[in-house]
Amino acid sequence: MPQVPQTFLDALAVRTWCGLALRALGRAREEIDAINVYPVADGDTGTNLYLTVESAATAVEAVFAGYEAGSAPAGSPSLADAAHAMAHGALIGARGNSGTILAQLLRGMAQVLAAGSDASHADAEGLRLALRHAADSARQAVAHPVEGTVLSVASAAAEAAGGAEGDCGTIARAAYQGACVALAETPGQLAVLKRAGVVDAGGRGLVAVLAALVETFTGEVPGAPARSGSGTHPRGEPQESVPAQPAPADSCEDGAGDGGPAFEVVYLLEAEDAAVARLRERLDALGDSLVVVGGDGLWNVHVHVDDAGAAVEAGVEAGRPYRIRITHFGADDVHARGGERAPRERAQRAVVAVVPGEGLAGLYAEAGATTVLARPGEPPASGELVEAVRRAHAREVVLLPNDADLRHTAAAAAEQARSEGIRVALIPTRSAVQGIAALAVHEPDRRFDEDVVSMTSAAGATRYAEVVVAERQSWTMAGICQAGDVLGLIDGDVAVIGADVTATAETVLDRMLAAGGELVTLVLGDEAPEGVAERLEARVREAYLAVDTVVYRGGRQGALLLIGVE
Fold it and tell me: What is the pLDDT of residue 187?
């Protein structure tokens, strides 16, 4: 990618900036992770910022690739094209609290830069306005803004840029220096930072992004900012300092160490503005660290809650949530244990599970699992599973793929995680109902091998079935089916072909219980007909004595119905 200093902010400058910011965050990622103590000491702020900018840079590169390949109109991308791509990429790829705020900062800049759609570039005044709007829009996106965070650093950068005169390079340098001064002041604004002897991790990441902006316009790399609250040079550039150690056990406040919410819930949401306004109120009542960014029908929602299912359900009521990520702050995490351990210490054990619907994602999360949502036709890649294992932040991880087709993907993810020093056991669950059975016997205080054996045994003892609608004519184990037929699959093979969902489900259930069973698990998809669960429960009561039934709502899970018998 070209890295020639840019005089104006045009599409090429946006491309260069994204590339340099990604490289800067790559260098600083581990350092930023190490000083992450607010709002939750989960040590991933640097990684989240890197992944957010990586998504933005990828989107910008795709725009340039489209022009270079001739699939876009002749010429080169406009500033509006590049700015929109940067903002959209950051929005859909935003990770964590700081990454979500950074996505809104980039969106705020893009709104100003793209305002003159015919303009090929923005001058110094345009850059000043973009930085100001970015800081303001990010602050508005946070339900309860806190000083001493990335918001303070962004506001200081915008203020410094607003008072500077000169070209884009001068404005960028002023913004960077203002951000550095504000970053050094964050320990004096948040006691949790002062006690830990560190600056705000999100603010430190923003400084790296602004340093890349300076380099874009000047070709010069500004001096590295301080990593702890150690003071500044007279001209406002922070002094170098030794990387701070993790905060002591009593260093958390403002909800980070008082037995606060146990889950981080993040999802993309397609919804109208009015629905999002109601969603903000609903989520604000459920938890904290609420950030909702985006617009034009697409939003990124981030919140910390105790009831992960309720947070997802609120999104379903508002519109269409997808790419749902639910992370459980482990039992040994400072956020969940009131600071009894150092914030950076890993949990001993965690469970990571792939789930097919939003309802099951909430159910698994409430049972303590870190979840990866697999929407119909959108199986997760091994990288997503590795990221989920890292988010679980545990020394030992039990991985539940819950899909026979994900066996090799999950194995590759487990191998990658093991190379990073995490002990991973892969239980070859082929359905979410087998995963439910495994979770039911999970005991994190038991020896790892014993726990894995017990969970594997419970999953293996659970027969699984699903009821779906055939999409096309095809040959099956039960004969030829036509598009629109109702199929009952038992242990992955078509066993029943019918015309009615409830009747087919009853036949499937009878065949499964013919071999015995003690518990029937039913997971209803959103498109399952009314009354099917009641009909099946009644069938079990009438025909199978001493067999219990439990029913869950799975959401948009692909199958009309999942059935487990154990």
Answer: 92
